[in-house]
Amino acid sequence: MKIWNIRLTKKRAAGAVVAAGLALLGLLLYLGRPAEEAESRLLDTNEARVEYLAQWGWEVDPEPVETLQFLLPDTLEEPYLSYNVLQRSQGFDLSLCCGKQVARYTYLVTNYPSGREDVQVNLYLCEGEPVAGDVCCTGADGFRNPLEYPGGPTA
Hints:
The protein is of the alpha+beta class and 155 residues long. It has helices at 10-32, 35-38, 46-55, 80-89; strands spanning 66-71, 101-108, 120-126, 129-137, 143-145.
């Protein structure tokens, strides 16, 4: 049997109390943050992607009409450079994903302001996070617009 003797001074006791308090405060701050905040931009499920588009103001058919995986080149060249101008205007930047796998999910928009039924929204994800997006319509009178709902989100 061993006996340990520790000489405890007021200074050491105060230091130990302060250290324990700081450790407890750090733990409470870490555990107290919402899980949504920690992973707020991860869109690993279809439900999360549809909800994300709703935050931009878009109502879409719940299942994508197309899903595509591709490898973004190591350096952006046309047409990616032109497309990235649109993305940077809305807070995204495709250049951060150069050389990485990107997934594109295309949904049919059900609440386009003019009532058009041929409008789609594209959402691009890299490592589960949104890196680009657009609202588009192909054809003679087609267009490609930013993700933001005209006039702001509807919700």
